[in-house]
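Marked as duplicate of an earlier ticket. Keeping the data here for the record.
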Amino acid sequence: MPANRAAGHRPTQELDDGPDPYLWLEDVDSVAALTWARERNAEAEGLLVGSPRFDALYGELREVLDSDDRIPSVVRRGEWLYNFWPDVEHPRGVWRRTTLAQYRTAAPQWELLLDVDQLAETEGENWVWQGAAVLHPTLDRALVQL
């Protein structure tokens, strides 16, 4: 018996109450599934936004997420340190790089590689950063995933 079965997992087609009544949602691009998802999202948003603590919590979270005091997490590729950085001016984010020596300073100088907000505006697309795969061993090219 597979491990997932031993843990009590059953495929949706084998529910005790018969076929899965939500199986039609697996057609994620269908008008019916998208409409259903939008309706559930609107219900959840109404409950969250309508709560007494929402505005205060939203403001606190926005302040933390938009703070310039955050420590940039980096990925080292060769002599460069790469970072993806969203902020107030760039809510979709920028992909940038710096050297280790610069990173160790109080105010590192970053080289801008890609401004996702500018690209989205230029191309009229709703781009979302998904990462970049850098060509090894030369590290001279990257495939950006949006």
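See parent ticket for discussion. Residues 31-49 form the longest helix (19 residues).
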